[in-house]
Amino acid sequence: MKAKLDGGADFATIAKKYSEDPGSASNGGLYENASVAQWVPAFKEAAETQPINKIGEPVETEYGYHVIKVESRNEPTFDKLKDNEKAALKNKLAGESIQNFTENDLAKLDLKINLPKVPATQEKSGATSGAGSTTTPGATTNGTGNTNAGTAKDGATNEGK
């Protein structure tokens, strides 16, 4: 197919004759005003990057091989996008911003960590649970930062909550 197209054959005629794509074969291979968001990644990338009005190299996807000719690209305005497309675009841009910051700016920051030092008596007496919390020698913590000190004097109990 690609050789015939490179030789000057009409794209629509070739697509109608040879395409097995149920979404476009009867339409001469045309996906008019279709949203690329629904396409598989390899097909989408080719459609977004291929030069206009050029027959591209075959693209392999899980559906087979595709020969693509991009006739035009219509970039919709943000207000015309569906809610899920807006969310996907926002997530993509946020991810790119975070990656850019991590790769380019994070190392340049002058970060200072000013956490309080642990008193010497605490270092010797046992564990701590969370910033600034302490435990009583021989006590246990319940995983929520609360201390269970066991039985208090006179038979009363301390729940630590």
UniProtKB/TrEMBL annotation:
Gene3D superfamilies documented for this protein: 3.10.50.40
Keyword Isomerase: yes
Compositionally skewed regions (Low complexity) per UniProt: 125-161
Keyword match Signal: no
MF annotations from Gene Ontology: peptidyl-prolyl cis-trans isomerase activity
PROSITE patterns with a match to the protein in the record: PPIC_PPIASE_2 (PS50198)
Pfam families reported for this sequence: Rotamase_3 (PF13616)
Key words of the record: Isomerase, Rotamase
EC code(s) of this entry: 5.2.1.8
Region span, Disordered: 119-161
Domain PpiC: 1-72
Source domain of life: Bacteria
Top EC group: isomerase
Protein name: Peptidylprolyl isomerase
